[in-house]
């Protein structure tokens, strides 16, 4: 069993398959596991490269439970409450969403009067919607006939076809800032709230119902813990081992060719590289009919991000998560997605994990992470030319809009990642950090399938396949891929897979079978 890429999707598949007795060999180009969920180390400072907080912890806990592990033996997770600070400078509003229902209703009543009743309605109705939609994300969609499943038919009204996320949330809330507070989560998918499908109201519900969590040492520790489980199960992870080509013969995957020229053969291959990059770089054109270069190019992609990682020789008294909105948020969003230009008043996210985690920076110092949504590389922005000026603009905005007025005097180490860097160094197509966009015509059956369509014995995991981007759904993609392989093998052995699956799904805590996924 070969897995190309040690990102979260590949690692989740590797955990499950190695637990089931498969010989798992993971090949990763970088020197660290995790992909966009890897650490960045600058001197004595550690940063998460990408995701900085975790939702739906039950998905991850269940992965460890299935493999007979207790996640608490590997990771320390801390709930963050309030979730984050949302700052609107134009009205000098600061909003601190919390899972404490009484405090939340009082807080909303104070700054968005009238919307406290609407918030209760939102939680009630979106909870029902989430229960229906999430069931649809646990299974693969390899045929249009899969839309005839009962769970999908029950969920059809919840897809809010024809409604954007912002329009749907406007049905609940009256105050513009309250609407933005509940729709900015579209950025987790790299989309505009005015274009993101209304189905994704479940993102804000997931946060407000289940909370958000920090992992001590950073979310990158999750990837390392998953890799540890694979190795404990007898699997191997080969770092600095770049895959040049997925080998296919007679319409079946046969193995891989490494950049070194070495050929490695296997019964199955799981591709966990960025999907569009993999199609245009490591799957030969002769083996592609559906995913030709022109087909990949014309698909719709998410935005990108401009990243600034700063090691500061000072600690600051500001929240763990800070989202600072542009004075004209809608204009900023249009600059990213429609104009594809650089904004002079960008929104940004400032992560200050040293407020609660002493492992990321030396005593008295801070590891600060700034993320700025920007257009992907279809914008043709010349980042070699614009990088320094845009970096200086973000520093200026931090000084203007946060408590860190003296930030420049305290920068000890610094790293920038531009959309160009995401594409060239991290092999992310178009630098689209959140992968293919999540418009409805690129979801479920219309998204690249977990069972690869071009040739057999090949499966896909990661944000570019079903169910989509975001750590919990990426873990689910690896789980679906693993279960499809197990299904293929059990049917080949003459086992009634359906009966076997249904018997074991009731007992996922036994650790004997990877539960949900088919």
Which descriptors would you attach to this protein?
globular; 3 domains; single chain; 518 residues; FAD/NAD(P)-binding domain; seven-stranded mixed beta sheet; 35% helix; alpha/beta
Number of strands: 19
Shape-level CATH architecture of the largest domain: 3-Layer(bba) Sandwich
* Alpha-carbon Rg, integer: 22 Å
Largest sheet: 7 strands, mixed
Helix content: 25-40%
- Low-pLDDT parts are 497-518
| CATH-level-4 superfamily name of the largest domain | FAD/NAD(P)-binding domain
Q: pLDDT average, as an integer? A: 91
* Annotated CATH topology of the largest domain: FAD/NAD(P)-binding domain
What spatial form do the alpha-carbon principal axes imply?
Answer: globular
Number of helices: 16
Structural class: alpha/beta
How far apart are the termini? Answer: 20 Å
Instruction: Give the number of domains.
Output: 3
Set down the secondary structure blueprint.
Elements: E1 2-4, H1 8-19, E2 25-27, E3 39-42, E4 45-48, H2 57-66, E5 77-80, E6 85-88, E7 93-95, H3 101-111, H4 115-136, H5 150-155, H6 165-170, H7 176-183, H8 201-210, E8 212-215, H9 220-232, E9 236-238, E10 243-249, E11 252-258, E12 263-265, E13 269-271, H10 275-281, H11 293-297, E14 304-312, E15 321-325, H12 329-339, E16 348-351, E17 366-374, H13 383-401, E18 411-417, H14 419-426, E19 458-460, H15 471-492, H16 497-505
Parallel strand pairs: 1-2, 1-13, 2-9, 6-15, 13-19
Antiparallel strand pairs: 3-4, 5-8, 6-7, 10-11, 11-12, 14-17, 14-18, 15-16, 16-17
Helix pairs in contact: 1-9, 1-15, 2-15, 3-4, 4-8
């Amino acid at each position: 069993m070969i897995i190309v890429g040690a990102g979260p999707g590949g690692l989740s598949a590797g955990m499950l398959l190695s637990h089931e007795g498969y010989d798992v060999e993971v090949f990763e180009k970088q020197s660290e596991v995790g992909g966009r969920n890897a650490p960045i180390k600058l001197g004595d400072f550690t940063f998460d490269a990408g995701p900085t907080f975790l939702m739906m912890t039950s998905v991850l806990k269940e992965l460890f439970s299935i493999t007979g592990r207790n996640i608490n033996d590997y990771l320390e997770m801390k709930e963050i409450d309030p979730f984050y600070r949302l700052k609107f400078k134009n009205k000098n509003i600061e909003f601190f969403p919390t899972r404490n229902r009484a405090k939340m209703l009082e807080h909303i009543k104070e700054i968005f009067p009238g919307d406290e009743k609407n918030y209760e309605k939102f939680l009630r109705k979106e909870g029902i919607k989430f229960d229906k939609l999430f069931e649809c994300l646990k299974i693969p969609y390899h045929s249009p006939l899969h839309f005839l499943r009962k769970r999908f038919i029950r969920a059809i009204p919840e897809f809010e076809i024809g409604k954007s996320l912002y329009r749907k949330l406007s049905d609940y809330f009256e105050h513009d800032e309250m609407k933005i507070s509940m729709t900015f989560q579209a950025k987790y998918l790299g989309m505009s709230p005015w274009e993101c499908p209304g189905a994704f109201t479940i993102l804000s519900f997931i946060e407000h119902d289940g909370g958000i969590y920090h992992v001590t040492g950073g979310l990158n520790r999750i990837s390392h813990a998953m890799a540890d489980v694979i190795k404990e199960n007898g699997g191997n992870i080969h770092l600095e081992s770049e895959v040049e080509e997925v080998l296919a013969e007679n319409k079946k995957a046969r193995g891989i060719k490494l950049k070194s020229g070495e050929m490695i053969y296997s019964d199955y291959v799981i591709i966990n590289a960025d999907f569009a990059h993999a199609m245009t770089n490591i799957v030969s054109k002769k083996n592609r009919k559906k995913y030709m270069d022109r087909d990949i190019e014309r698909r719709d992609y998410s935005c990108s991000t401009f990243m600034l990682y700063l090691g500061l020789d000072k600690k600051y008294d500001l929240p763990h998560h800070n989202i600072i909105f542009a004075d004209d948020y809608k204009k900023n969003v249009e600059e990213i997605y429609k104009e594809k230009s650089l904004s002079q008043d960008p929104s940004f996210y400032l992560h200050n994990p040293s407020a609660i985690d002493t492992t990321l920076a030396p005593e008295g110092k801070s590891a600060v992470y700034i993320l700025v949504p920007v257009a992907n590389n279809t914008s043709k922005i010349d980042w070699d030319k614009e990088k320094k000026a845009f970096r200086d603009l973000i520093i200026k905005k931090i000084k203007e809009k946060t408590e860190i007025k003296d930030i420049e005097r305290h920068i000890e180490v610094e790293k920038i990642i531009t959309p160009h860097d995401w594409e060239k160094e991290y092999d992310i197509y178009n630098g689209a950090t959140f992968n293919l966009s999540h418009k409805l015509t690129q979801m479920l059956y219309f998204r690249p399938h977990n069972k690869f369509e071009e040739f057999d014995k090949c499966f896909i995991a990661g944000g570019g396949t079903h169910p989509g981007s975001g750590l919990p759904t990426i873990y689910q993609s690896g789980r679906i891929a693993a279960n499809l392989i197990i299904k293929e093998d059990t049917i080949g052995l003459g086992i009634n897979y359906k009966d076997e699956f249904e018997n074991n799904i009731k007992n996922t805590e036994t650790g004997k079978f990877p539960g949900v996924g088919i």
